Structures are given as structure tokens and as C-alpha cells.
Amino acid sequence: MWAVLATAPSHMHCNIYLLKRQEKFYKEVMPMATFKELRQQSGMNQTQFAKYFDIPLRTVQNWEGNINKCPEYLLKLMQYKLNNENKKVGIRHDA
Questions:
Q1: Does residue 58 sit in helix, strand or coil?
Q2: N or C: lower Cβ tally within 10 Å for the chain?
Q3: Which range of residues forms the domain containing residue 69?
Q4: pLDDT tens digit sequence for 10-36
Q5: What is the CATH number of the domain that holds 92?
Q6: Domains in the chain: how many in total?
Q7: 21 and 36 in a common domain
Q8: pLDDT tens-place string over residues 52-89
Q9: Computed from CA positions of residues 50, 57, 33, 72, in that sequence, does the dihedral angle turn out positive or negative?
Q10: From CA 61, how far away is CA 23, in angstroms rounded?
Q11: Helical segments of the chain, H only
């Protein structure tokens, strides 16, 4: 892996550095919420949340019921979207 990085263009090193820095930020400042916590903090019910993210309602129900596990990368993306589209996680809003 390091041999690949050593031959990679310098902009790739910068991207890797930024990704690691962002990952550190999310781990230290924004602890990962469970799917159910994220949905509850958004102030939306399951149906609203499913429509907002264009996810089948049954998938939302399965993730909350721990039948299936929501992938961590999706949790991060959903949290990012909520925080950057004036739907701050932790602040209730009218949906």
C-alpha cells in the first residue's frame, strides 16, 4: 500500500490527509449515533425520514428494529446532510 502512495500524485496525498483529518474530527467531535438516534434527533418520524432520504420505509423500520444494520458510511452521510441542510441533528424542526 505504501509503495502505491509513494508513487501517487501529490494531490492524492493531500486528499488522503484531508480524509484522515475529517475522520478524526467525526470520531472526536461528532460521536456516531445509532440509526434510531439519528432519526429521532432529526425530529422526523419514520415515514418522513424515509421520504427525505428516498429510502424505502421498510428499510428504515428494519434498521431501527435491528433486523438489518445501517452501514456506517450511510449514517455519516445522513448526519452530514442533516447538519448541512438546516435540519440540525438535535434540533427539532417541523417537517
A1: helix
A2: N
A3: 32-95
A4: 555 666 666 666 665 555 445 568 999
A5: 1.10.260
A6: 2
A7: no
A8: 999 999 999 999 999 999 999 999 999 999 988 866 55
A9: negative
A10: 28
A11: 2-7, 10-28, 35-42, 46-53, 57-64, 72-84
Q: Do the beta carbons of residue 79 and residue 30 sit within 8 Å?
A: yes
Distance CA 50, CA 67 (A): 17
Same domain, yes or no: 36 and 71: yes
- The verdict on 26 and 4 lying in the same domain is yes
* Tally of CA atoms within 13 A in the half-sphere of 60 that contains its CB: 20
- pLDDT for 91 equals 44
* Residue type for position 27: K
Counting every residue written for the chain, the total comes to: 95
Examine the domain organization and report whether 25 and 47 are in the same domain. no
Residue 41 pLDDT > 60:
yes
Instruction: DSSP for 4-21, please give it.
Output: HHHHS-HHHHHHHHHHHH
Distance CA 95, CA 89 (A): 13
Residues 25 and 37 in one domain: no
